[in-house]
Design goal:
The chain is built from 15 helices and eleven strands. By secondary structure, the protein is an alpha/beta fold.
Length: 321
């Protein structure tokens, strides 16, 4: 069995292991896995109690990588995330004490509760994979992922993420309520004698190897052009932009949007045993890759228009090559 096939088979066992713990939410799990295998960060949005924290801790266990959780609060300071220099006992020397960001997987819980100054402390970590404290730079251990959560309902006392930071997330994933059957299974699993414990199925090295392999997946010219057209169609005033975009969108997606689409599409192609990207792969990832990158105007907010509606219309309207 080739190494490439072995990696794909390992990811299948990871999905099976997660399914032992997480009931339903198949699309959410697949998108989280795809984002991590593509080397990207994830923003999870959903009301409390839907298993966001459980999902992240389960991912850290099945991938057998180090994990830290940071509870974001209004009084959280940047040094509480990155770490700081402390005086060594018995001497006058300073020693760097790493913060919780020094882990392979960091859960930034309720990220929109912290002040912009503290939120921005994650920016360098997410983009540059390093931390700078008092002019000294410390590299983060690879692989490095941030999975941030936010509550879409409770907005009082919160600080919405700035566009520059939102753009650093490869995917924004929405978590919805479970169905009746899923809710029944959740209750049985969590109120019984013993809860399932996830087992390690991959390693950090496997993740990085998969990421390297995914980047080698070729993409045909016509498929690439379709992805580029989808991005351009998010820009008001562009010839490819439709009526809704021109009417409701203030700022369209940046080039990071199409980079995210292509990287994630390559991962999904590889997971399905194909060494080429299809149009369906692009359509599968366009919504989570773009929904947080469009900035709507006041008219859209007044008419309760969502970015999902606009992106879905773009996907349907842009012609394939």
């Amino acid at each position: 069995m080739s190494q490439n096939h072995q990696l794909v088979e390992k990811v299948k066992t990871v999905k099976e292991e997660i399914a032992r713990v997480i009931v339903g939410q198949q699309e959410v799990v697949e998108q989280c896995l795809a984002a991590m295998l593509a080397g990207g960060h994830v923003l999870l949005e959903g009301v409390p109690g839907l298993g966001k924290t459980l999902l992240v801790t389960t991912l850290s266990r099945v991938f057998n990588i180090s994990y830290n959780r940071i509870q974001f609060t209004p009084d959280l300071m940047p040094a509480d995330i990155t770490g700081t220099n402390l005086i060594t006992p018995g001497s006058d020397r300073f020693e760097f004490k790493p913060g919780p960001v020094f882990a392979n997987l960091v859960l930034a819980d309720e990220i929109n509760r912290a002040t912009p100054k503290t939120q921005s402390a994650l920016l360098e970590c997410m983009q540059e994979k390093r931390v700078t404290v008092f002019g000294q730079t410390w590299p983060l251990e690879l692989p490095f992922f941030v999975i941030a959560t936010q509550n879409p309902l409770e907005m009082e006392g919160t600080y919405p993420l700035p566009e520059a930071q939102l753009d650093r997330f490869l995917f924004k994933i929405l978590i919805h309520y479970p169905s009746l059957e899923e809710l029944k299974e959740i209750v049985i699993k969590t109120t019984g004698e013993e809860e399932a414990a996830p087992r390690a199925r991959m390693s950090g090295r496997d993740i990085m190897e998969f990421h390297r392999l995914a980047r080698q997946v070729p993409i045909a010219e016509k498929v690439l052009e379709y992805a580029l057209k989808v991005l351009l169609a998010t820009h008001p005033g562009n010839p490819l932009a439709g009526e809704k975009v021109n009417r409701y969108v203030r700022v369209g997606a940046s080039p990071r949007g199409v980079q995210s689409i292509i990287l994630a599409a390559k991962v999904f192609a590889l997971l399905e045993g194909r060494f080429n990207v299809s149009f369906s792969d692009l359509q599968r990832v366009a919504l989570p890759a773009l929904r947080h990158r469009l900035i709507l105007n006041f008219e859209a907010l007044g008419e309760a228009i969502t970015t999902d509606e606009i992106v879905e219309e773009i996907i349907e309207s842009v012609e394939r090559g």
